[in-house]
Design goal:
Layout: H1 6-18, H2 23-39, H3 44-62, H4 70-78, H5 80-83, H6 91-100, H7 108-135, H8 158-174, H9 181-196, H10 204-233, H11 236-246, H12 252-267, H13 270-287, H14 292-298
Helix pairs in contact: 1-2, 1-3, 1-8, 2-3, 2-4, 2-7, 6-13, 6-14, 8-9, 10-13, 12-13
GO molecular function: gluconate transmembrane transporter activity
Keywords: Membrane, Transmembrane, Transmembrane helix
Protein name: D-beta-hydroxybutyrate permease
Length: 299
């Protein structure tokens, strides 16, 4: 997607539709682009590097402080499209399915309600940060080490660009009861990408090798953090903490949320925390008779 220029085409198309007549609309545009790309299965790292060459001139034209750039990017790419939207092709949404036997489209009503909550909070928070920045007289300033990113003029049209994303999400929804549906969806999306983007890729073999190598790093990173966290959860000290958390008055769902958040903070990895919670915490909550779909969403 990145090498062919498809992500660039999608981003530019959204930018044209949204316009750039106000600073807030500019931030919303970046959020929308990040959301569409990550919900379509594009890595958050690719999204960041796609948005950098687009956001620099946009922030400069609208005179927005560059320090605000992470807000729309991580709000759009690291919240509802990562954890709550039905069918999200993220590792955080995949891990609980292995323990609970649920699907990626689990509990759509709860998912949409949580996504709407995140959306409203994000809109308000981004508006607050922008208003505060403008009130403080902060504006865009050139950086001496600013990197110039060269964007190719030869890119696929919008229809071809979104086809792999649509095929991935479509496969997940159509085959949501099939085991390992994400792997199937990704395979379909990769094959479609290889076919339709062939004219835009000078050397598919090199790109495939680079993509394979790049995918190994996050796989090992996630595995190592889960391993570290698992060892940590087996310690006597953590057992005491977990027992204290599980005794929190009220619904056991509160203690599950606190436990997952605690592990996430300790190991510094959301996917690692979900993996640890799924293997170490969820079985106990299943024995309490709690709905697996609810556990999937909360973990």
């Amino acid at each position: 997607m990145e090498a062919s220029g498809a992500t660039q085409t999608i981003a530019n198309s959204i930018l044209k539709v949204m316009g750039k007549d106000s600073p807030y609309k500019g931030l919303l545009t970046i959020t929308l682009i990040a959301s569409i790309l990550t919900y379509g299965g594009v890595s958050i790292f690719v999204v960041i590097f796609t948005l950098l060459p687009l956001s620099r001139p946009l922030f400069k034209e609208l005179n927005i402080n560059w320090a605000l750039f992470p807000i729309p990017v991580f709000w759009g790419a690291g919240t509802y499209t990562m954890t709550t939207l039905p069918g999200a092709p993220s590792i955080q949404n995949v891990i609980p399915t292995k323990v609970l036997g649920t699907s990626l489209t689990v509990a759509p009503v709860i998912s949409l309600a949580a996504s709407l909550t995140l959306l409203v909070f994000g809109l308000l928070y981004m508006a607050y940060c922008l208003k505060k920045s403008l009130a403080n007289g902060e504006n865009y300033s050139e950086e001496e080490d600013e990197t110039v990113v060269v964007v190719s003029d030869k890119t696929p049209n919008l229809f071809l660009s979104v086809l792999p994303l649509v095929s991935l999400i479509g496969t997940i929804f159509i085959m949501n009861k099939v085991p390992n549906v994400l792997a199937i969806g990704l395979l379909v999306s990769i094959l479609i990408s290889a076919l339709i983007f062939y004219p835009y890729l000078p050397n598919q073999k090199d790109i495939l090798n680079a993509a394979t190598t790049a995918s190994i790093v996050p796989a090992f990173a996630t595995s190592s953090t889960v391993a570290f966290g698992t060892v940590l959860t087996l310690s006597a000290g953590f057992a005491v903490i977990q027992e204290w958390i599980q005794q929190i008055p009220g619904s056991p769902l509160i203690s599950l949320s606190v436990s997952t958040a605690l592990v996430s903070g300790i190991i510094g990895s959301s996917s690692g925390a979900v993996g640890i919670a799924s293997s170490n915490f969820l079985p106990a909550y299943l024995e309490m008779g709690i709905n697996p779909e609810l556990l999937h969403q909360l973990s």
